[in-house]
Amino acid sequence: MSLSVILPLPLPAARTGPGDREVRARVVMITLAALLALTAVASLSTGASGASFGAALSALARGDALDATERVILFDIRLPRLALGMLVGAGLAVSGAVMQGLFRNPLADPGLVGVGAGAGLGAIAAIVLGGLLPAGLAVYLGHYVVPVAAFLGGWATTLLLYRVSTRGGRTSVAVMLLAGIAMGALAGAVSGMLVYIADDSQLRDLTFWGLGSLAGATWTKVLAATPLIGAALVLAPAMARGLNRLALGEASAAHLGVPVQRLKNTAILTVAGATGAAVAVSGGIGFVGIVVPHLLRLLTGPDHRYLLPNAALLGASLLVAADMVSRSIIAPAELPIGIVTATLGGPFFLWILLRNRGVLDL
Amino acid sequence: MPLASPLARIHLALAGALLGIAFAAAAHAQSYPEARRIVSVGGSVTEIIAALGALDRVVARDTTSSYPPRVEELPDVGYMRALSPEGVLSTRPDLVIAEEGSGPPETLEVLRAASVPFVEVPEGFDTEAVADKVRIVAATLGLDEAGEALVRDIDDRLTAARDSARAATGDTPPRVLFILSIQGGRILAAGRDTAAAGIIDLAGGQNAVTAFAGYKPLTDEALAAAAPQVILMMDRSGDHAADDDALFAHPALTTTPAARTGSVVRMDGLLLLGFGPRTPDAVERLSEALAQTVADAE
Amino acid sequence: MTLIARDLTVEAGGRPILRGLDFTARSGALTAIVGPNGSGKSTTLKALTGDVAHRGRITLDGRELAAIPPTELAARRAVLPQAASLSFPFTVLEVVRLGLIDGLEAAQRHLPHDALARVGLAGFEGRYYQHLSGGEQQRVHLARVLVQVWTPVTPEGRARWLFLDEPVASLDIGHQIEVMTLARDYADAGGGVVAVMHDLNLTAMFADSVALITDGRCDAQGPPARVLTDDRLSRAYGCRLRLNTPPAGGAVYLLPQAAGGPGEAGL
């Protein structure tokens, strides 16, 4: 599914230069909003059961009662799943774009601030050691032990990394990058130990968690993830100008009046919150955070004032669409969504890269 | 047990809580004799339903349910621990019977919300566990009599198979190493409290690995120290002769007695480890194979 | 209105780079900082712009520089770094627009184009920054810096400032003169300009005041004719230098002083 097919816009030619991209960015924004609306409706109407959302709505409008199964499928499965897909997709894509802007590197992803490794460790610990929790806590958390642990793991790792790389009120992005690699290795080692003591069925759970899925979508998860991912989506536009100027380097950004340290604080904390929440509720869905911002940069340029909202829209559409594939391709079973994003996204991304070598060499 | 009075059920529940989860589950088994659209989750559960002659009441199964062969014609709702909520509901089930550990919990929650009855069947790796499973499944389906008959049948055959197996191997049970996988030269072996250990014991062998519980990678030295006389593996399609060569080319395995005699037994995974109605057959075949390889070695 | 630095001290890795340096720049004037390699020219500029930690006092119009809020400072002062990096494929126009101060964009839409024309890059708006030559990139950044402090004097009558770190380092002689004339005009219109310079000819030609830095101290500051003497330059640069002396034996030499105005081919 090529964007230039969906949008009647040529990708910028590498040599002559793209001209003024602001108008194009606005057109893309409107198109992506329409695309998201379409994907959302399609997602609500697609599923193994063949239950129809339109039919249900008109039944409700007529005042007819839905049968229990239909009600559950539409309101307890598809709706929370759609909401969670949009939240997670938008959250991951915006987090990726913010991190790339902050680290001034198109390959940066939220994993760089330790969220991925920490959340993974939290989830593995919960799956393997969940039985050791105090009974009261275990009952209270119920089957939300894994998402809660994943979120706490991701958040704690980021805070630690942030402390390590901040001296005298200044955060060194380079130290953070290197410390992130060290922490990732450490988290990997501890995860490895936990995997070693895990039993057969826990190993299966770990594998499925790592592949990511929206199958466990519940309203509770949607409500828990909304404030954290919502905060990132709301604060992102306020960061856009600062991130644009950060492309000139920290000193130049500061001379342009950007409160660089405050920008770093906001970016790191909101990304940690949003990515932590996304990973917690959906497991390891990779790819969205790097591919979506990259595609949009090729299409409308690196201006974060357009990149961030467009990334939210495209990320949401992409994940909702991928989820549709994941739950219909081998219905009534479903494919983990991480497999879908990787198998569809990987070759497409490669094709885009090859087609745009000229721009990428910049 | 479906007819127990409320008071008796409370007593039973208390007793169950004290005596262990397996018993509690048995005590609680609900009966759904009317159920005609059953989703069966877990290979052994599906086999038990088939053995009870109730397969026509099943409308869908999970990925691990592959026997008898005609269940493969039924829609597959996914791996038992990663069931798709809408996938299960789309089959319009009036009952879900699932092996212990099926999930994820979110899917079970959705089933509850949709008022689909859900019965969990406890897992276990010995004779009693098989009987418990059969009783619970039978009670759930409202086939208690057929269930008791099946329990007796399995028990008789299992006792016979086990006795003849023990008679064959006598005081020197062969040391058997079950290898789950040998991916990348790393040997994942079965320790204590596994289905593999259970079936090896029933078939008159002794598990060569007792240092840990569950399936874990085995170091090369521990492998040599385990000194297995027979290697037991799951059957996969492909060239077994070549597989055996590759297996014994593994440096740590070359020193074992099993390598010297080339003793490898391969059996279908579900048959071997399912702990269901076919377990007596599995014991019979495994013990024959063990006796054969031991005899060949001598 | 003046920028005054007193007793500036900067250390890097335990080694002193600046040792109690004094420096003064007036608005309405172009103040050049010259000196041999490693003398602390660029460090002086970085201390003046707050990019390196330093001891000593810096005041702008009598106000402690560190006490001025960043956004207020950004509206008063722009800094052109020696080597500007840029991540992501921005176009020339997008880079220049980064210099627009928040909130005034609608009113200033034409400014980036004017600034590009001013540095000789009219028509480059839609090109990728990364496709330009080093000298063109340097001038894009100059345009960006100009946009930030476009009018040399604020409506309240305060001077705006340009801090330029080797603004002509990678430019050909034509563009060197063009850029220096631009800086000169900015000062003439009432703004303040502080520039780190390597080229002593251009310094002598355009600067009102020259600060000669040697070994982390200001050796002398004043009008070029007073600071740039044979003795002082010879001592500072460690080789014998003579002003206003044609080469022996009639070798060819070229002085920017003899060039015409920017854009004048003069044929």
From TrEMBL, chain A:
It is found in: Cell membrane. GO terms for cellular component: plasma membrane. It comes from Mesobaculum littorinae. InterPro entries: ABC_BtuC-like (IPR037294), ABC_transptr_permease_BtuC (IPR000522). This is Iron ABC transporter permease. Belongs to the binding-protein-dependent transport system permease family. FecCD subfamily. It is a multi-pass membrane protein. The keyword Ribosomal protein does not apply. SUPFAM superfamilies: ABC transporter involved in vitamin B12 uptake, BtuC. CDD domains: TM_ABC_iron-siderophores_like. Pfam families: FecCD. One of its GO terms (biological process) is siderophore-iron import into cell. It comes from the Bacteria. One of its GO terms (molecular function) is transmembrane transporter activity. The chain crosses the membrane at residues 79-99, 111-135, 141-162, 174-198, 218-236, 267-295, 307-325, 337-354. Keywords: Cell membrane, Membrane, Transmembrane, Transmembrane helix, Transport. The keyword Transmembrane helix applies. Its main location: membrane.
TrEMBL record, chain C:
It comes from the Bacteria. GO terms for molecular function: ATP binding; ATP hydrolysis activity. The keyword Metal-binding does not apply. SUPFAM superfamilies: P-loop containing nucleoside triphosphate hydrolases. Gene3D superfamilies: P-loop containing nucleotide triphosphate hydrolases. Part of the ABC transporter complex HmuTUV involved in hemin import. Responsible for energy coupling to the transport system. This is Heme ABC transporter ATP-binding protein.
